[in-house]
Amino acid sequence: MATTSSSIDAVDEGAVGSGATAVGAFDRVLLAVDGDTDERVREVAVSLAAAHGAELDVLSVVPLDSSVDHWDMVVERREDEAEAALDGVGEVADAAGVPVSKRLRYGTPAEEIGLYADGNDVDLVVVAEPDRSGFKRLFSPSNLASDVRDATAVPVVSVPTNE
Questions:
Q1: For residue 83, what are the β-bridge partners?
Q2: Which residues is 21 bridged to in the sheet?
Q3: Which intervals hold domain UspA (predicted)?
Q4: CA 137/CA 146 separation, integer angstroms
Q5: What's the pTM value of the predicted model, to 2 decimals?
Q6: Does residue 14 form part of some domain?
Q7: Could you tell me the sign of the dihedral formed by the alpha carbons of 121, 102, 49, 17, in that order?
Q8: Can you tell me the mean pLDDT for 98-123?
Q9: Does pLDDT of 8 surpass 50?
Q10: Residue 33 in 3-state DSSP?
């Protein structure tokens, strides 16, 4: 069986001098994390950024639910989890020599991730995609990865996890 390989080296001629990179190259990768983000997801995002010489933006969104009792305590716990997740990725990125920026936002995760990606020249979004078989799929037909794809025109890579 014969295999072929090709390389994409094309540059948009209209974008020369405007900081644009070759097709298929990424200058800025966005990793969306929360307190439950799998280590594998972090490693994939850091590896992609390192392979492309890209900056890594790490974003955690604290969901705000008005129906929660003891709202302040819940939000504070979510903030602590988000900050721990951001710091964990920061350590992995620093060890790999990848420049990293950590951000914390409040709101609906998919919407905030989409807004951040569209407003900050992000070239690729990386999100976790937990296993959604059986009852999980029945009771929650959508997931963050598909919601983020709907919220932005930026390509989205979803990394399967076993959560």
A1: none
A2: none
A3: 26-159
A4: 13
A5: 0.79
A6: no
A7: positive
A8: 96
A9: no
A10: strand
